């Protein structure tokens, strides 16, 4: 039994190591050569695995490129679904940003990922779709706080703007400047939400 569990643990660690190697190799190559010019075979060679191993972990280049962002977006959606009653939508967003998502980054992939996005604007555009669930849940949380319909434009605009700002923070803010950046974002979003809410209430009173 103990030997079986040990073997299972070794297999899982081996899978994690190969998966990390594939992501690292792909993000390096996408940054160096460009997304379009990089093939699955190139990624396999850099990661020192077979091409079918790459496709066994990821069905496409796009999935490899966006995997870390997708995982981060999923964590944000989960945070909105499970936030505490006394946590505002802005609390959830700022906590998510401050978590750094990949604080455990022994392979240095975070820097490679940022370079990849700077080199490939088309990949930056694809991320919006990966944020759809989190944006919808954020709008729902905001609407509940404000006592308005989840489909109200105030909640939708605020949530979409917050998502766009969050992506910019992830792309362009060095880790040692993250705290200040998030504090600035929070002030900005609070002011913007206040202005949207005041405008909406003013329209209702006329």
UniProtKB/TrEMBL annotation:
Transmembrane segments: none annotated. Pfam families: TetR_N. GO terms for molecular function: DNA-binding transcription factor activity; transcription cis-regulatory region binding. Coiled coil: none annotated. It comes from the Bacteria. Keywords: DNA-binding, Transcription, Transcription regulation. Residues 39-58 bind DNA. InterPro entries: DNA-bd_HTH_TetR-type_CS, Homeodomain-like_sf, HTH-type_TetR-like_transc_reg, HTH_TetR. Residues 16-76 form the HTH tetR-type domain. This is TetR/AcrR family transcriptional regulator. It comes from Streptomyces liangshanensis.
